[in-house]
Design a protein that fits this description.
alpha/beta; single chain; 11 strands; eight-stranded mixed sheet; 19 helices
Amino acid sequence: MSLVLSGQGEKTSPLLRVARKYSAYLSYPLAICGLLWLLALPLSSFSRRAYFSENAMMPGQVYTTFGTQSHMDAMDRVDAELKTKDQAQAVEAVFASIGLDTETQEFTYTKVPRIGKHAGTNVHGILRAPRSDSVEALVIAASWTTANNASNVNAVRLMAGLAQYASEQVYWARDIVFVVTDSGEQGIEEWLRAYQGLTTTLPLFVRSGIIQAALSLELPPAKRYTGLGLYFEGKGGQLANLDYVNMVQYVSRLERMPAYLHGLKDVPRRAHWWTKYTSATQLLLRQVRAQAFGLSTGIHAPFLRYRIDAITLAGLPQPEDPVSAVFAHGLFTDADVPAAPMQRQIGRTIEASFRSLNNLLEHFHQSFFFYMLPANQRYVSIGDYIPAAGLMIASLLLQAMHLWWMQGPDELRSDSPHTRITRINAYYALLRATLPSSVGIILRVHALGLVLLLIPQLIASSVLTDATTTAYLFTMALASISMVLHTSDIYWTRRIEWRQLKSIVSVYLAVVVACLSVMNFSLAVALFVVAGLPLVFTRVCRVDTRIRRALGVLMLVAVSPVCMMTLGMHVLGCSSNPFRVFLADFYRFGSLVYPLVCLVYWPVNLLCMIIVLIQ
């Protein structure tokens, strides 16, 4: 009540009086300061050197032995089996010859609702630990294709050699599960659902205990690799524990096969500060893109949904290395096999990593789960980057308070004590007259967003098969219908107070960004940039002419979901329409991007247009 009546001259707390006095001037600087804080994150003064919180791992304290003749023979058996059998049967035969408990899982999945079904096959083998009772397990996973749709037979061959190596050792305290899929992330998701007992149609009978950590391999065709790319983001913004990332980077450098974050190599220490800044900015942008939008960076992503720390190691071929992109009949040739030293170095990196994971006494818990990595072996903790989100949220809230106090005619904000009762009555009369219209418009816009969210489940499958134009047509059609309805309501009834409407929308968006910032900071920042900033600067000056209103609407159209997704096809590197990618990730992996586009981003953009058009 104090907040409501403070605009009518009521006695309030000193904090509210200061906020009322300066809120009109602080909102825009706070939004800009939030963006400047983000631009300062790549600076070395914001980051700290990485360290180990979990001392039990003891990374680099073992003598690695991978690369003997028996390990190479196991890798060659994959080539021999592929010549006479299909992929699943060949892997199952190799695993069985090593002595693993094997099982094949056949499944079907749907990428987008009502658009056909795709069949896939998973094969997994379990090495039973001689020192445990199958209570806990570690996972090595690989797909037959990489995230870039290149052949990943190198990784499958190396997995066979690692299985042979692990079967010869007696110090394992956890089972090791080797998983090979032909459907990428969808295949791993189906395998995990069956392994965790979340599906009754495709149960797994050969199982182990609780999965403590997972590692996926991607080795595109090449003769030599300059290093490994390390990816750690999940579909919903989840991150692997920082100790896991630091441990893999540490042991990879000991084995002279360094793992670089997102494949970006280190900048020399004596490089110019601007070179370091641009390199850190590029790395942070890649992390924001992967974390916010859930873009595919490896088959480790489904594991993170189940609270399983997982990463992907991807080989980085030398630039001059001749890479075969197409394989005749899907077979592997000797010319495309990496050199034996390369196989030995990568194998020993994974061996050292699993020896450290084998030493864990409990699940990863001591290090950070919320962080940003501006450079290899450096990190930015949540306490250093979350203030940027706080500044953005404060910008929205201060503007909402100012607009709420400034709604209605100037007579309502008089300080005269003689008209106190009259002003309060007039103020409540204004709320009774305008608040239902403002809330009604907000509800109608969000109802149309809900329709957009549910449309893929209701329409015929033939309509959604066009991946490049269908989503745009639906978005523009619904936007046009809603704008016609709302603008007619505005110009005919004239009972809407634009300050009141913008205030309510600002509070709503501030709450969404605040909740999202502690779950997926990158997505919260992206939402504020495309929806919050236009809202903050909407109607920042008078729009008393039709030309100014038209310019305001055109600027909002430029930052609408349709235009942003068109731009995103090039910026995000999506091979298909981002709308369709977000839709598939929502139904398959529970990604939040598609619901936020339908229920927050697009409605707020339309409401900003309505605010501009109100006279």
